[in-house]
Amino acid sequence: MRVPPWWVRRPLSLLLVAGLVLAVTALPLLVPAAAVLSLVVPGRWRPLRLLAFFLLYLSLEVVGLAAALLLWVASGFGWRLRTRAFVDAHYRLLRVLLAVVDKAARAIFRVDVETDDEGWSPLDDGIPGSTNAMIVLSRHAGPGDSFLLVRTLMNRDHLRRPRIVLRDTLQLDPLVDVLLHRLPVAWVPSRPGPGQDVAAAIGRLAAGMGEEDALLIFPEGGNFTTARRTRAIAALRSLGHRTQAERAEAMAYVLPPRPGGVQAALAGAPYADVVFVAHTGLEHLDSPAAVWRELPMDQLLHLRWDVVAAGDVPRESEAQISWLYEQWATIDAWIGARTDH
User: Fold this and answer.
1) Which H or E run contains 16?
2) CB atoms < 10 A from the CB of 4, how many?
């Protein structure tokens, strides 16, 4: 899918405002209708919960866009928008919005998070800027895991300034489009065209990271599904990467990692520690139909963080690829141990 230019996307913000006005106006009809449907639809108050989350998310979109407009005006109509003060202001806005979405999702959909090692993570220092820059490599599975990880990196315990590698289709969300275009982000097209060097863009994003920064990458390139895993292994074989294909076949719960972006990030910030993130609990929600069947989810999401110091990261290309696959095999085994019990 080709994302339309910004001058086509920006008017979508007005549609959000109109949608919120219509939704609020129609609340006297929507709430009773959702309540009646909840009596006949399987699941505990499923339509009513979905309506509540939809209205909250729509409200946050409009509030976030209004705040972004105020910041643009305060910056001299965009003149100082890239200065440290206004970048920090946008990070604070993002932190607040994600905190509200996180609390709402936990309450409405009954999703909770449990971290291995009694809640410890390598990011828990409590003192901003006291640890090294980080490249965070996470598996990608289930709805909302990217929101969860960015929220975790930015919460009051970690206070990281995330740099994120995202699919360009997320620009169709008006708030994501406006807000993240003012922060360090690399937009990755689904099918890069001529002259679009994704690895180079990730390398530039990693360069110059400071102690408070964390670059978040999903090396699999998309949410895990069995079909995607099969296609990815077939693609490796067709490209002649026989060893990687064999190692990918041995991993049942993850997609084979794509090393290009990871290697570009490591080259751009060779001084950064590398954090591997595994999670499980939402990967079975791999389609809208599956999400609908599970609502309210009542899910416990398990997280695991493993940190590799910058000095222990291989620097030779083939060694880096082998090391990345080894780490992904560890993640796969960890997921398997929890999936099978």
Assistant:
1) helix 12-25
2) 11
pLDDT tens per residue across span 118-170: 444 555 544 344 468 999 999 988 777 888 889 888 876 667 899 999 989 99
Whole-model pTM? 0.91
Helix (H) or strand (E) holding 306: strand 299-308
Q: What is the pLDDT of residues 67-112, one digit of tens each?
A: 999 999 999 999 999 999 999 999 999 999 999 998 998 888 888 8
- Distance between CA atoms of 128 and 212, rounded to whole angstroms? 6
Angstrom distance (rounded) from CA 63 to CA 250 = 47
CA 210 distance to own-chain centroid:
21
Q: How far is CA 112 from CA 107, 199, 254, 300, 325, in A?
A: 9, 34, 22, 5, 29
Q: Which helix (H) or strand (E) holds 299?
A: strand 299-308
Tokens 């008017």 — which residue? 11
Directed axis angle between helix 84-109 and helix 145-154, to 10°?
Answer: 130
- Whether residue 335 contacts residue 253, with contact meaning beta carbons closer than 8 Å, is answered with yes
CA dihedral 292, 39, 20, 110 (to 10 degrees): -50
Do 151 and 165 contact (CB within 8 A), yes or no?
no
Q: How far apart are CA 324 and CA 276, in angstroms?
A: 10
Per DSSP, what are the bridge partners of residue 215?
A: 135, 163
Cβ contact 306:327 at 8 Å: yes
